[in-house]
Every structure is written in structure tokens, then in C-alpha cells.
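User: Show me a protein chain along with its predicted structure.
Assistant: Here is one chain, sequence first, then C-alpha cells.
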Amino acid sequence: MTIATDRRSATGLLTPLLAGALVMVALGVYGRVHTPTGFAWAQEGSAGRCR
């Protein structure tokens, strides 16, 4: 029983870590392949809320 519990807790920790690592690699590849446009879409909506 102890081995099964340890394996489940290890899987529960490794799954989000691997998913996060895949997202980081995908974003890094995307940033390396695509050229910047000079347009920051993430900041466009937040500037109006701060005023």
C-alpha cells in the first residue's frame, strides 16, 4: 500500500511539472522562430484599467 501511495503522489507532482516544462519549451521555440512586431497585446487592456 505504501508503494502505491508514493507512486500516486509522485505522479501528482510530476504531471504539472512536465506540463509546465512543455509550455516553457513551446513558448521558447515560438519566441525564437517568430520575429517581434513591436506590438504588446498583453499591455493594451491593462493600461485603461490603471487610470
